[in-house]
Amino acid sequence: MKNYNMREMAFWFAFLASFFLINTGVNGQANNTGFVSIDCGLPGSSSYKDASSTLTYISDAKFIDTGTIHNISVEYMMTPTLSPQYLNVRSFDTGVRNCYTIKSVVAGGKYLMRATFMYGNYDGYSKDVIFDLHIGVNYWKTIKISDPENVTIAEVIFVAPVDYIQVCLVNTGLGTPFISSLDLRPMKSSLYPAANSSQALALSRRLNAGPTEGTIIRYPEDPHDRMWEPWSRVPNWTEITTTSHIQNFPDDLFEAPSAVMQTAATPVNSSEIQFYWDVNPIDKGLSYVHCQPALL
Ligand SMILES: *[C@@H]1O[C@H](CO)[C@@H](O)[C@H](O)[C@H]1NC(C)=O
Ligand SMILES: *[C@@H]1O[C@H](CO)[C@@H](O)[C@H](O)[C@H]1NC(C)=O
Ligand SMILES: *[C@@H]1O[C@H](CO)[C@@H](O)[C@H](O)[C@H]1NC(C)=O
Ligand SMILES: *[C@@H]1O[C@H](CO)[C@@H](O)[C@H](O)[C@H]1NC(C)=O
Ligand SMILES: *[C@@H]1O[C@H](CO)[C@@H](O)[C@H](O)[C@H]1NC(C)=O
Ligand SMILES: *[C@@H]1O[C@H](CO)[C@@H](O)[C@H](O)[C@H]1NC(C)=O
């Protein structure tokens, strides 16, 4: 693989929404061609249709031959909103480096890769775990698990140098690596121009300002299946919404979905809006913030 700078961090705030309003009443066309949705730890040849995303998740068995599969502990299965991807995991007791290989990738194509992790005390040890994720030979992110119920999401947008992708979990001596799911999504090459053949974009947060519901927006509302975390009830912010469909400009570089752009935040008693976030000190390199202004 080429010389990625995986440490460039991206901070994307879908905040202060979009461009102009068009009452088309047409929903963005969802097209999941080329999506690979893998539920790690799902037995053998199993698959299922995920009710909320409508996407079909398949077992990880044909992408890896190491590791063992486990269900999470029953007490953590009860959360009604828990996505089925988190009910089981694959873990890696042996070997420093265990890799998934996804084939039928187009060399030179742009992709979004997402890995998720929910511990759910699958091994009964109730232990904190820290391990590294690599994409090919390049460092991607350090995963730190301290809350068994917390879902940790790692995401990177990159240009594939060859016609397959390897995602590797690397044991750094701080516990047994495990994984809940892997999603590969083809991206239009024109989107996220900062991701190119010499550098990738690793996601820090992707926040949807002012939603009325506290749920993550993803496919089919976002045809690119990015995950947008709710960002609401911030002191001194007022949430504003529209029901109109919001159309992106034809040459928009990010194509934030209408569902995200329909909500926004404005300051209560001020003409400026302030926000801040913590930068993870191990993620060196350039930070990149994308905000979308609103005209609601
Ligand atoms: C879906 O996307 C693929 C690849 O981007 C494209 O070739 C195909 O025409 C699209 N299909 C529809 C129905 O838009
Ligand atoms: C996980 O749970 C399912 C159904 O709840 C069960 O069929 C399966 O055998 C369990 N798998 C393991 C590895 O315990
Ligand atoms: C999950 O972990 C993140 C990052 O460590 C933290 O900000 C968040 O509050 C945690 N969420 C829950 C529900 O514990
Ligand atoms: C990738 O983007 C960076 C920053 O915009 C630029 O410096 C670099 O030359 C680009 N690399 C390629 C291969 O286009
Ligand atoms: C909210 O605004 C008030 C007055 O405008 C200010 O004193 C307070 O610090 C603000 N709170 C936050 C959390 O920004
Ligand atoms: C906004 O200003 C009004 C009038 O000055 C005041 O009554 C109200 O408490 C302020 N709200 C906040 C959140 O600062």
UniProtKB/TrEMBL annotation:
Keyword Amino-acid biosynthesis: no
UniProt keyword Kinase, yes or no: yes
Keywords for the protein's UniProt record, in alphabetical order: Kinase, Signal, Transferase
Gene Ontology CC terms, in alphabetical order: membrane
UniProt signal peptide: 1-28
Single GO MF annotation: kinase activity
Subcellular location: Membrane
Domain Malectin-like: 38-290
Pfam family membership, one: Malectin_like
Chief localization: membrane
Membrane topology: Single-pass membrane protein
UniProt cross-references to PANTHER family, sorted A to Z: OS07G0107800 PROTEIN-RELATED (PTHR45631), SENESCENCE-INDUCED RECEPTOR-LIKE SERINE_THREONINE-PROTEIN KINASE (PTHR45631:SF202)
Name of the featured protein: Leucine-rich repeat protein kinase family protein
Organism: Rhynchospora pubera
